[in-house]
Write a structure and sequence with these properties.
single chain, 114 residues, alpha+beta, three-stranded mixed beta sheet
Amino acid sequence: MKKNMFIRGILLLVVVVLLAIVFTGCVPTYSLPPTTGTVYLIVSGSYVHNLYMDYNQKFPSVSSGIYSLYNVSIGNHLFEAIDTWGWTLGYYSVTKSIAAGVNYVYLYTSEDLF
């Protein structure tokens, strides 16, 4: 009698463990929404500029082209292109709201505006 109760107890324990393993695989998992984005700075102009984001230099002495910034936090950011010889010779800035994913920021330098 005791042996029969022992076997039933082990069998019940195995069934409960198997059911627990099966049902825990069905729990939905949620991922957090992304908090950063990628920014492509598109610079046009014929002079050499320093590129800034939020007053921090990101690319020194660059000419026109496309430059990438990764893991930029979402929200408003200030982007600037300042001529390497001083802001009076060439300057352009834009404030852009960065979203998760890919963002494009166009920086037209002063000589392009005239």
